[in-house]
């Protein structure tokens, strides 16, 4: 939290009157302390103080040079807006419109790392760590938070997670409510669409029920609803005044191969399924003056949920950008120069502790003194 642009070990040690670079290096990179109990205490304390309305799932990238830093690979790097050499981490944050804080982290290991055990061994990656897609890492973080007796109010995430049918099913199976962004290209049937049972021809296996028309992009379904169905909603006060747009809530039946397979499994198997795809709630934004809708979110909340609440939760994802900006620019989240798995997780835990301290001070700035 001290002044200074670089928050790597050497410059931090040099800013302290009794700074010991070797001791700090040992503490962050080699010391065997377990970061999980520290993150658990931070998560418990901040959840108690913030009383979050949503948990935000996202990932963040760290541009890197070389190939030795744990998890580094050429992959999409949000920090530079293109594919580049970087590390990527998945995080879960507790958030309201006025405060937020990371609850837990996990470093993403590309398959090229887990396919090279010797490379993982040199970076100190635990033997039990395997390659997992980012949405699987996110579900794992949510499971860990559940083991800590923390309960997600509503899970929100950008379209990188919202388009993943397995991620949405994983949240549903865990009993978690969600409002996840979509791109608008995902396909679905209208709520009133009904499957048709073709007549059996007498040969081969029985014919399965099917919808008479092909599914369409949710952007098309939203536009067909008509601008008159959209109402104006204000979700928060911004720097330039009230943030307002027009929204509508629709019921749709998500389609596609993964949605179909999940529905068949839930219905008792391919031959026993009645052909009906489950409905989900679609939140659509159509700003005044725009020719077509511009934003889409899918949710397992009932369509009767007040639209103002759904909009506020969907839009609350902006708080994670505040967190990343403070964690990176103010506290050096992306300044770690070590190469090991343990060192990286120690570093992000200490940065999280610093941000949690600042959050607590902002919420309660007056110093308590003895009576």
Automatic annotation (TrEMBL):
Annotated Transposase IS701-like DDE domain residues: 1-241
Pfam families reported for this sequence: DDE_5
InterPro entries in the record: IS701-like, IS701-like_DDE_dom, RNaseH-like_sf
Lineage top rank: taxon: Bacteria
Protein name per its UniProtKB record: SRSO17 transposase
